Amino acid sequence: MSVVDNQPAAAGRGSDRAVAIASSIGRFLVIAVTTYIGLLAVTFFIGRVIPIDPVLAVLGDRAPTAVVERTRREMGLDLPWIEQFYIYVKSALRGDFGTSVLTTNPVMSDIRRVFPATIELATLGTLIGAIIGVPLGVLAAVKRGSLIDQVARIVGLIGYSVPIFWLGLLGLVLFYAKLQWIAFPARLDVVYEYTFTPITGFYLLDAAIQGQWDVFYDAWRHIVLPAALLGYLSLAYISRMTRSFMLNELAQEYIVAARAKGLSETRIIWGHALRNAAVPMVTVIALSYANLLEGSVLTETVFSWPGIGLYITNSLQNADMNAVLGGTIAIGSVFIAINLLSDLLYRLLDPRTKAG
Amino acid sequence: MSAGTVQSRREWLLSERPASRLQARLGRAYVAWRRFSANRLALVGLIIIIALLVVAAFADVLAPYSPTFGDLKNSRLLAPSAAHWFGTDDLGRDIYSRIVYGARWTLYVVILVAVIAAPIGLLVGTIAGYAGGWTDTILMRITDIFLAFPKLVLALAFVAALGPGIENAVLAIAITSWPPYARIARAETLTVRNSDYIKAVQLMGASPFRIVLRHIMPLCISSLIIRVTLDMAGIILTAAGLGFLGLGAQPPLPEWGAMIASGRRFILDQWWVAAAPGAAILIVSLGFNLLGDGLRDALDPRSGDQ
Lengths: 356, 306
Hints:
The complex is a heterodimer. Chain A is mostly helical. Chain A has helices at about 1-5, 10-50, 55-60, 65-75, 80-95, 105-140, 145-160, 165-180, 190-195, 205-210, 215-250, 255-260, 265-300, 310-315, 320-350. The two termini of chain A are about 20 Å apart. By secondary structure, chain B is mainly alpha-helical. Chain B has helices at about 5-15, 20-35, 40-55, 60, 95-130, 135-145, 150-160, 165-175, 180-195, 195-205, 210-245, 255-265, 270-300.
């Protein structure tokens, strides 16, 4: 105590800040590790409650008892469950989720192949949601109770209430079948499937890098509707949260001070209030991104989009549990990481939140 | 009823000095109702939910055809008409009748999830809040872990393991939706835990079990009801999503999500097969969202954004 007291005030504050940051990060690591182990515990449990005996699934039900017993030992199923869980966690950390029955590949290599498609879709969706949702939320807050506020509220409420897969089907009827503005459900036209070599797995980016603008246009025609739908979901969330943050900021005294100084309304709203609302909004956008990763399961199924969501549902139809659980862990890991990182970011960026 | 009695009745309800417990309760309910009914959108929500209850209760009367058997010979995939308001599906079944009976399954899922998940959350939250210490830390860590999971994907994995079916879908959704209730119940418990009336009950020798059950849980109910109502739309959407993926209700149950899935094959030519059940899901979830918003503003004026 006395050591701190003797130091100059500024240095004391600096070290307080450092301690706060260190404890934030420490807390983050503890929570991240326990949550991840929790996720693995749940998937482990799910894998064990399946009514299918894993030994019988491998051998069939005509194998002699001795063989069954040996296989059971080889698969480690005679060990105590805590030891089985330890082995499970160890292999999961190595990225080993077993082999997919359906594709006969290791689940991890399947996931690596399909994940970029999901990331591309979710990223574009979040971009659309943020670009429209933030200004909409700001306008709704500034002109509270006006027509635009009402419209924003209804648009948001419908976004919270609509089954996304249904909206996707209706979108296909309208934009693909009737208006023919967009391409059929897939990632690229068949023509390009064989001439186009992806580098990063993000087709829009790959096509742009290689200067193949016809491919870029084709990829765009395939992605635009599913991305717009996911964008609508995140727009509903982002605009609602933006509105409430902005209302909060606009009620602060510094806004009155800025007005008294004679600043233009535009500057006050977009320069001062929005900038102060920016920190919680980063969190909101990150959370909506995580939600879109999850929402992509249904969207990808409707649009035959070869991402992780379609991979999981295809594996489900074929009772391919390794692939289902591997996919669940993959989405879960990214989801948890984004959730916790945005929380950490919020604590570090916002001077008002102290660690603890 | 004359204007005078209405006037005096209102005065009785709004009295500052209620003479009985009943009067105080009715007065509070009246004030909450006045705030609620001033919100037109919330009233729309209430009407939608009442309509859902009525449709589910009188499905036998309201549905002109059987929900499970159709006329395969004469009425396959008919467009909407006076005889079949929303058309017929590929098995010749009247879609309007199926949607009417589907209201029962929607209610079944929503009520069952609420009945399973809310008490779990209530129990975990009140115990954690009242006990404090290690019990609190461990229970809340578990809650946070579940809160950080992707709900739909986890529900998918659960149903995949348990096997498809509406009961398993309900179970999977309930398992993934209790954590927010535990958080709310704990927060409410912490606010009353050190209050005088709890101390008084403790002095009288009530067991912790009795205190939590009789004196803390009732205080958590109203915030819990608001949160459950707001979650109903999410529950309906998740259940419909599971149905759509073939993991929820199995044919021939007229569950709305599964109906959309079966209409998917005909979506380009016979769009009405999938369109009508989706619209039903949208309207009902919208109703729950509007009702939940209204209840929150009426019962808990702190969190309203007026």
